[in-house]
Give the backbone structure.
Amino acid sequence: MKNKKKICFFFNHERGLNVVKYFSKINTYEIKNIYLSKKNLNKKILPLIKKLNLNYNIIKKVNSYKIISFIKKNKVDINIICAFPYFFKKDLLNSAKFGTLNMHGGKLPNYKGASTLNWQIINGEKKIGISIIKANTSIDGGDILSQYSFNLKDNHEISDVHKIVNKKFPVILENTLKRYFKGKIKLKKNYEGKIYKQRSEKDGKINWHLMNSLEVYNFVRAITKPYPGAFSYIYNTKKKVVIYKCAKSKLKPKIPPGYVFKIGGKTFVKCFKQSVEIINCSTKLKDRNLLI
């Protein structure tokens, strides 16, 4: 088919892979190349990319003359970023005919930066938002083309949220591009908002003295598997306890926060307010253990 829109994709995780798989089946698009970042690359996606029989490169630097010249030489219509750890400079951003779009896993302008799906859960949001923006040199500060949100159910963990986002993003992108190429999208300014930092394993420590049961529950489900998980240490030992799943509890015994107590064969930990029931953790907890 003539006049196919040519795309270059930049990603390193499953979100980008799902979008590529989706667009590889649409005959109005041609995927010219896939650029995978060596930094933070999920190597599990490599065999799946190879099966698609598409051109791809694993790169250490993104703003190279080689990449920019490839995009210009092949008259690429649009660059698509799907969670990529390298910053794009102006020459690369403008290398494709219609510029570069960023598929951002956060509601804008409130959730800019990294780990924004995790942060939305941690912050107790009732809805999870995702956005497609015109990428520029600021951190997720480009004009907004489209946004989508869905209810965060009480039983959703971070893996459930990723599944929903990975399923929705390809469809949202396709619908957005149809209107964008025709000039039918009114861009929305994306000023101010908070920039969130990339979360690391050390950020998962639970503060029982400051967090109530709802906050602990949200914290645990926001960073449980496939992430390292929320954790504490058993007092007077170096034993780390990773909590993978818990439930809110209205129990509020008159004991200090962080103390473990057991009722009817169930294990609980006292929070700043109320408690949480420990459903799955890395270490068997004893009654009256103190978590710090």
User: Anything to note?
Assistant: The longest helix spans residues 158-181.
